[in-house]
Amino acid sequence: MGASLTYRNNISLSNVISGGRMYSIISFYHQKHHFTIRLSEFKTALSQVQQLHFELPSGELVPAHFHITEAGLLTKHFIDCGGTVRKEKRATFQLWSANDTDHRLAADKLLKIIDIAQPLFEEEDPEIEIEYQQESINKYGLTTKGAHFSLTPLQTDCLAKEKCGIPPQPKKKMKISDLQNQQACAPGGGCC
Fold first, then answer.
1. The pTM is what?
2. In angstroms, rounded to a whole number, what is the distance separating the alpha carbons of residues 188 and 150?
3. Quick check: 98 and 141 in contact, CB under 8 A?
4. What pLDDT is attached to residue 3?
5. DSSP string covering 31-100
6. How far apart are the first and last CA of the chain?
7. Residue 120's pLDDT is what?
8. Which stretches in the chain have pLDDT values below 50?
9. Distances (CA, A) of 140 to 5, 22, 32, 36, 109
């Protein structure tokens, strides 16, 4: 007997009753999809911050003098390897840094840019995709991290695993007590 809740980003909490005692088990599983917030969540978060800071996956911050050079809706209409026609829409924002190091984009100014671009989003609430120039134009998902935003790596994936004969990835289950005993998150540590 038990109950299970699945949260966003593939985290689930299960309460399992065994021998008259209740145990909570947190399950984390990664499906190689990117993790990103939606436009409405981005706008809400922007309304709650004073300064804009974007963190790259390396932990380095995008220079504070960045510009938003594009805001728009990207539509990708494609056929996956299993023959299914798909359509994805993303709200895209392009970050760019110039040599005007005194420039600062305020959160309320970015909200005004989004308001101007709002007709492009066609009454939808698309996920966010950020483009940022490094060696090449890199694309990232976006999440909130405290008082700033975190650019998250995007991953490729087979969207037709069952047709391609790829077995499903098993969910990794962990007990809450195991999480409390871990010192820190490390690659291969099983915490995420």
1. 0.69
2. 22
3. no
4. 38
5. -S-----BHHHHHHHHTT-SB--EE-TTSPBPPTTEEEEEEEEEEEEEE-TTS-EEEEEEEEEEEEE-S-
6. 27
7. 95
8. 1-34
9. 28, 40, 13, 8, 22
